[in-house]
UniProtKB/TrEMBL annotation:
Name of one Pfam family that matches: FtsX
Parts of the chain that traverse the membrane: 258-285, 306-339, 359-378, 399-418, 424-450, 718-738, 759-783, 803-825
Keywords linked to the UniProt accession: Cell membrane, Membrane, Transmembrane, Transmembrane helix
Name listed for the protein in its UniProt record: FtsX-like permease family protein
Listed InterPro entries: ABC3_permease_C (IPR003838), MacB_PCD (IPR025857), Membrane_comp_ABC_pdt (IPR038766)
Compartment(s) of residence: Cell membrane
Organism of derivation: Aliigemmobacter aestuarii
Stretches assigned to the ABC3 transporter permease C-terminal domain: 720-827
Membrane topology classification: Multi-pass membrane protein
Record GO cellular component, one term: plasma membrane
Domain MacB-like periplasmic core, residue spans: 24-232
Amino acid sequence: MTGLAWRIARRELRGGLRGFRVFLLCLALGVAAIAAVGTVRAAIERGLSDQGAVLLGGDAQLEFTYRFATPEERAWMDARALDLSEIVDFRSMVVTGEGEAEDRALTQVKAVDDAYPLVGAVTLESGTLPEALAMKDGLPGGVMDKVLVDRLGLAPGDTFRLGLQEFRLGAVLLREPDSATGGFSLGPRTIVRTADLAQAGLIAPGTLYETEYRLTLPPATDLDALRAEAEAAFRDEGMRWQDRRRAAPGIERFVDRIGAFLILVGLAGLAVGGVGVSAAVRAYLDRKVATIATLRTLGAEGRLIFQTYLLQIGVLAGLGVLAGLVIGTVLPMAAAPWIGAALPFPVSFRPAAAPLAEAAFYGLVTAFLFTLWPLARTEGVRAAALYRGAGRGGHPRPVHWLAVAGLAAMLIGGAVAFSGTPELALGSAAGIVAALVVLWLAALGLRWIARHLARSRIARGRTGLRLALAAIGGPREEAASVVLSLGLGLSVLAAVGQIDANLRAAIDRDLPERAPSYFFVDIQNDQIDGFLGRVKDDPAVSRVESAPMLRGVVTQINDRDAREVAGEHWVVRGDRGITYAATPPENTTVIAGEWWPEDHTGDPEVSFAAEEAEEMGLKLGDTVTVNILGRDITATITSFRQVDFSTAGMGFVMTLNPAALAGAPHTHIATVYAETEAEAAILRDLSRAYPNITAIRVRDAIDRVTEALTAIGSATRWAAAVTLVTGFVVLIGAAAAGEGARVYESAILKTLGASRGRILASFALRSALMGAAAGLVAIAAGGMAGWAVMTFVMEADFAFEPVSALVIVAGGVLATLLAGLAFALRPLGVRPARILRADG
């Protein structure tokens, strides 16, 4: 039977692709979006892998916090490396000018030696790095990021200060080869020589700085063996290892997460395309009524008809998926120069099998999921019913119900497996399914309301409105296609708009009330009293908080490796801020356990942030080992306390009893809440009195975060735009499929005396009503999605944003108007006699 079905299918396919253009375009767009995102992600991952040594600055790196390597540690590295370079990384304030003309800005300082960079090259506006850093006219040189140079109004040859040391700007920095490994930075980069910082007064015991030792190794070096040897040798020294195989793990995690998220947004577009695919198949089968009837008359079983058209759909689905894969590969490759120039790390574009296979899987499963139902309904229809004009009917057999459920499970399971973030994938899948159900119910509700309004007083005497309502509430399924396809696309855009607006509103609304003006770090023990005296006596300062500050790495939990217990939780990734206190600090709320006695001198105890402890699976009585300055401190968790990091104020995950950290070099951190107009004077006075102190303006830090969120939002909107374009294609398909009915309707209305203007107004009104309905449902769905994200993910307040909502409704009306009117010209131009005579 399969052979016969294939022969019939092959002969019908010779007739061309008429009726399947929307099918192919919807499928190709959805697959192309997913393939493009996957191709870009693969290119970034390949670039990170291929250029690992350049990104890291060597084959391997040993990193220490708050200290330089000891002579023994340097000797160990020298014995195994072909070349070795030492880098010191810390934040500081760069100062220009004198007196009232003095200006300052936060910068991330990289102090280097003569060997830097071991791999790659620093790109400057002019000259070379050794020339730019050389001593000239008695001043050491430095290079600055162009953003910082422009911010301070400097030019090569001008001077600036770091701490107590004056430098000459030798050149403008355009790109560092190893910038991607530095992670998120609050300030632009400044590079100087480590030796030139000796008199700056910036690096002292307890100062927040890190040293990184980059090594180039012999080609045959076993990195796993060398890492094991290093960790065994420096296990108790607080050393962190990194090598060229994962030079930028933070970027890899970010790319994986945002890539998975964008692919899930792409799946929403594919779901919209699925609606179009289903509508195209239904329209195609309607046109094949005579063919199916003839086959049934000749003795063909329902199963043969089902197989025939399933094979046709399979071939066409393959063509659509192939077209999508080509588009999704060619477009990123064509845009590779622009993408590469926009990213601060290397990318390597070439076709990648994995993302293309993932996109093909999604496309094929979606195609069969949305076509199986209309195909299955033809199996139980008799020839006599078909000849009477009942083009589709009957209920699918249980096996088809099971097949649809299986395909849906396969699609969701694939999303979970491919994304690597099961919770996000399941949540997105549930949201798409829920949106489709809500939109389908809305379409049914729209038709029911339209039918009743067409008979009500509202439509009496309003012929155009009555005709439009009657058409929407009629038996044709145009309303369902429009609301489903356009509504889902608009829902994604509405959700993105609501989330973006609420994030910006939260920053603008809450920052002045809840966040401090400045964070001050690296306050030395002999400076804290003078610092507090200056800010507390200022009437413009409403609040000051300070605390001792150390940084440490959580290495073990209950004598097990911390990452084995807590996975990739942010607390165990990198070093964390730690403080100590004899009594609970002001505004501290202990929610479980008890604080230690004020004079406690026994075994170390720690109070842990409650929310983070719950996420890591910690309980009272557990032990946490923290490495601080090479010393392991194992403390017992004796209390949990509430810590609200969303205020941008002072908050520590871990607070220890003072005796546990006795003798450890440390500095202090402070937050100052002041009136805006007083901020400049406070910063000027403190910088002059204590040049080593670093001030971080919270508004500037929030702006950097906002920039990152804006970039993510832009990428999301582009992905959502593909969903909307697909929805518009479905609209065009629905309008094209209903053109024949509108031709007949127009002929009847003209015969009854209706003018072209009235008929056109009726067509336009029905399109506008369906678009408005889709937009209104999208606002509700997008608003609920935005509320869920802000409430449960961002843990922030949600307020409905009306401007983007109005734009969504207007967009829905405009889209349906354009699609509807594009296919209204032919019906308006037909002669009634010819149409009615042909139908008779």
